[in-house]
Amino acid sequence: MRVIFVTEFLPGNKRKSVFGAFQRMNLFIEAIKSVSEIKLVFLVSRNEVRRKTNKNILRKKVMKIYGDKVDPVFISTPKSINEFTISQKIKFFLKSFIKSAFGTRKDSIYYHNNSLRNTGLKKIISNYKPDFIFVFKINSMLPFLLNPETSQQIYFDFCDIEHIRFIRTAHQKDQTIAQKMQSVFYKYLICNSERKTIRISDKVFVCSNKDKKHLDKFSQGDKIITIPNSVTLKRILPVPVKKTILYLGTYLYEPNVYAAELLIEHVFPRIRLIIPDCELIIAGDSPERIKFYSTSLEGVSYTGFVDDLDELYQNVRIVCTPISIGSGTRIKILEAASYGKPVVSTSIGVEGLEFEDGKEIFIRDHPDQIAEKCIELIMNKNLCARMGALSYKKVEALYNRKMILNQVCKILKDITD
C-alpha cells in the first residue's frame, strides 16, 4: 500500500515540535508508516525552499525524524496572507467575502495562493499513484477543494474545528471592530471550506466525540471517526513543597496569550491575597507577546521555552488553564495529568476531554471561582495528590499515546482492506 501525506506543518524546529498539532500529526505519520509506504508532501513558504541547499537541509531534517523511507517532497507556495499589509488584508477579506457570498470560489480561503500547490500535487499524485491521500488540517486541504476530481480516496484530519475559534475570537470584548470583522470573515470562509472538506473526503478524523457530534450533521454514514489527542505516559510526581501554579503553552498562539493574561491579571492576584508566598510560572515560547511580560509583577516568572519538562513539573503543585477562546482539545491538560498534576480549567479549556469536574479536574469559568479552586488545591496537599492520581488514571485509560497509536493503525488497516 502507498500513501501520500500532505501537510503545511514542517518539522525540525524543537520549539514547534511540542505544539499539539505537531504531536497529532506525528501520531498519524507513525501509524501510516506501520501499515504502508508513505511519501510526505510539505506545503512550505517560498522563503524556506528558495535555494536548493534549503531543500536538501529540510530533506535531511525530515528523514532524520521520520526515517529514510518517507521520501519527503517540498512544494513552495506564494506569499502567505500573514505577510500582507493591513490594506492588502482588508482588500483580500472583502474580495473573498463577496466571492463566497455569490457562490464563486466558495470552497477556498486562500484560493489565490494555491496554483503552485495544485500543479505540484497533481504531478506527485500522478507519478506516485497512492492508494489514498491523507491530508492534515484545513489549509493543506485547499488544493483538493479547488480540484476535487482526484480519483484517490482522501482521509482528512481536522485537528481542530477552526471556524469555532474565530467565532469565539470575534466575541472577545477587547477586539476592535476591524479585528471582529476579520474573525467573522475567516469564520464564514473557513466554515464553507470545512463543509466541503467533509463532503469530498472518504474518512474524516476529529479529536473528540463533541467535535464528531458537531460535524455529523454535515456527513452521511460513519465517515467521521474520533481519534483523541494523546500523550506519552510519564510518572506521578510527588506534591512539591513550593506553592507553585503553572501555565504552559506557546504564546505564538493567541488563545494562550489571552489565558496567560487573564491568569496574571484577574486570577493570580486573588490567590496571592490568601497565599502570599504562592508563585506563578508562565512557561513556553514567545512570552514577550504577553502584555505584562515587561512589567515586574511579584510572584510571576517567565521561563521561555522549556527543554526539560520533567524538571519543570517537579516544581509545580497545580496547573491552571483559564482558556476562553480557541478550539480542539488541550494537550497541555493531558500532559499535566500524565505527571499526576491536578488541573483547574475553564469549560472551553477542557472541551472535548472526558474529565469529570470535581474528580479528575476542577472546571470553573469565572476568575473568582478559578482562584477559589486554585487556593483549595494549593492549601490541601492530600487533595492535590488524590486529584493528580485520578487524572493520571484517566490519561492512562483514554489518552495513552501507545494505545491511541494502535487504535489508528487498526482503523487504517480496516478501512483499507
What features would you describe in this structure?
The chain is α/β, with parallel strands linked by helices. The protein has 2 domains: 2-230 and 401-416, Rossmann fold (3-Layer(aba) Sandwich); 244-398, Glycogen Phosphorylase B (Rossmann fold), CATH 3.40.50.2000. The protein has 15 helices and 13 strands. Strands 3-2-1-4-5-6-7 form a 7-stranded parallel sheet. A 6-stranded parallel sheet has the order 10-9-8-11-12-13, sandwiched between helices. α10 links the parallel β8 (244-248) and β9. α2 packs across α15, α6 packs across α8 and α10 (254-274) packs across α13 (367-379). The model is unreliable at 100-116 (pLDDT under 50).
Summed up, the domain count is 2
Computed over alpha carbons, the radius of gyration is: 22 Å
CATH C-level class of the largest domain: Alpha Beta
Helices, by number, come to 15
List low-pLDDT spans: 100-116
Helix content: 40-55%
CA(first)-CA(last) distance: 10 Å
Tell me the total number of β-strands: 13
In quaternary terms, these chains amount to single chain
Helix and strand element order: EHHEHEHHEHEHHEHEEHEEHEHEEHHH
Shape: globular
- What portion of the residues fall into strands of 2 or more residues? 5-15%
CATH architecture of the largest domain: 3-Layer(aba) Sandwich
Record the strand order, biggest sheet.
3-2-1-4-5-6-7
Q: Average pLDDT value?
A: 84
Query: Structural class, please?
Result: alpha/beta
Largest sheet: 7 strands, parallel
Please name the CATH topology of the largest domain.
Rossmann fold
CATH superfamily of the largest domain: Glycogen Phosphorylase B
